[in-house]
Write a structure and sequence with these properties.
Layout (H helix, E strand, L loop, with lengths): L2 H16 L3 H15 L5 E5 L4 E2 L8 E6 L2 E7 L4 E5 L6 H27 L1 H6 L10 H7 L7 H8 L3 E4 L2 E4 L7 H16 L5 H12 L5 H10 L22 E2 L13 E12 L4 E10 L2 H6 L9 H9 L3 E6 L3 H16 L11 H5 L4
Parallel strand pairs: 2-4, 3-6
Antiparallel strand pairs: 1-5, 3-4, 6-7, 8-11, 9-10, 9-11
Helix pairs in contact: 1-3, 7-8, 7-9, 8-9
């Protein structure tokens, strides 16, 4: 095998290592340590001393506030660093060691820079305070040996962290300007609690938040957070401010869904015509285990044919709201929707009244 071929294979293997979830990666590291324990050719140290005593299910680690600072704690497998003492008899174990070491160095470098860059968020837990940054810009500002956009993308899209009991994908801390500005726009409209023309929203964003964008961009932002135009009847949703952000209903969603009780909303990317108004919402549901329930919509065949039809035809969006009063909240949402639209959401119509009252968890 030529050196170029070996190098290409090595890059592909390392790409797979970067994409491993926490459980698979820890098993990978354990296997390397076990296979080289009899004749170690390296010396072990640690990236830092922020080490958890045991592994966490699904999470790579946890962000902890200590005084005025924030630190990232993770299992020792993700803090391991290696120093080569001599060449091993089989060179593959040297590559194995380098892949583990490099992944750990990448991870701790990226998270430590995110803790610094997004400090206001860690202090407030307010997504609107996130600093917009692209992967390219991050690499440019916080360069690190051998870390490029492709490797950064693989890492952050497969790293779940916990902070104050909430789960985040590391990718969440690399928001676009559109994402942050849309959240600010949504907050502005909700606080005013009235219908606003796009030009009025544009003026508020400019003078109150320093966001100077065109009316067309305001329209795009508004659509991204599912806020209808001012001249369209709005659904009175008393829980709007408590819902999560909208997210695509796809296989990646299970990474961020909690195993807790709550209600959820499924919507389209465009309006549907109801009896009295238009809306993107097609379903309100509830469950005692949101992750398990919502994952069921990803199965090949599901019980609700309307949701299955739209899921197979176009992109669906979902957001959820944690609540121990999920049955009561769901009924409020359905009644409010019916009062404004003249009927239940299209995918709720299949359920009998008895079914809507019973917990679907």
């Amino acid at each position: 095998m030529s050196p170029i071929h070996r190098k290409t294979i090595g890059r592909l293997i390392f790409a797979n290592v970067l994409e491993m979830n926490i459980g698979k990666y820890i098993d990978y590291v354990d296997r390397f340590l076990a296979m080289t324990a009899q004749a170690p050719f390296y010396e072990i140290s640690h990236v830092d001393n922020k080490i958890l005593p045991e592994r966490m299910n699904e999470f790579t680690g946890v962000v902890v506030a200590e005084g005025d600072d924030f630190h990232f704690y993770s299992p020792r497998h993700l803090k391991l660093n290696f120093h080569l003492l001599h060449e091993p008899l089989d060179v593959k174990w040297k590559h194995y060691m380098n892949w583990v070491r490099t992944r750990n160095l990448f991870l701790n470098h990226v998270i430590n820079k995110v803790l610094m860059l997004q400090r206001v968020f860690w202090e407030t837990k307010d997504l609107k305070t996130l600093v917009p940054i692209s992967l390219n810009k991050f690499i440019e500002i916080y360069s690190f040996p051998h870390l490029d956009i492709s490797r950064l993308s693989r890492l952050i899209n497969n790293t779940l962290i916990s902070f104050n009991g909430t789960r985040y994908l590391l990718r969440d801390f690399f928001p676009s300007s559109k994402k942050v500005h849309s959240l600010i726009l949504e907050n502005v409209v909700c606080q005013k609690n009235l219908r606003m023309k796009d030009r009025e929203i544009q003026a508020l964003l400019k003078f109150d938040h320093g966001i100077n964008v065109s009316v067309r961009t305001i329209c795009n932002y508004r659509n991204s957070v599912h806020i209808q135009p001012y001249n369209v009847v709005q659904i009175n949703n008393p829980y709007r401010r408590y819902f999560s952000d909208y997210m695509p209903l796809n296989k990646k969603i299970k990474r961020v869904l909690p195993e807790k009780s709550g209600v959820y909303e499924i919507s389209l990317g465009h309006d549907l015509k109801y009896q009295k108004s238009t809306s993107r919402i097609i379903y309100y549901g509830r469950s005692s285990n949101l992750r398990k329930r919502i994952q069921s919509y990803l199965h090949t065949s599901i019980k609700n044919p309307v949701i299955e039809y739209y899921r197979d035809k176009e992109k669906l969006f979902l957001r959820y709201f944690l609540s121990s009063r999920q049955a009561h909240v769901e009924q409020e949402l359905l009644h409010s929707f019916t009062d404004i639209s003249g009927s239940l959401p299209i995918a709720n119509r299949l359920l009998t009244r008895k079914a809507t009252i019973r917990d679907q968890g």
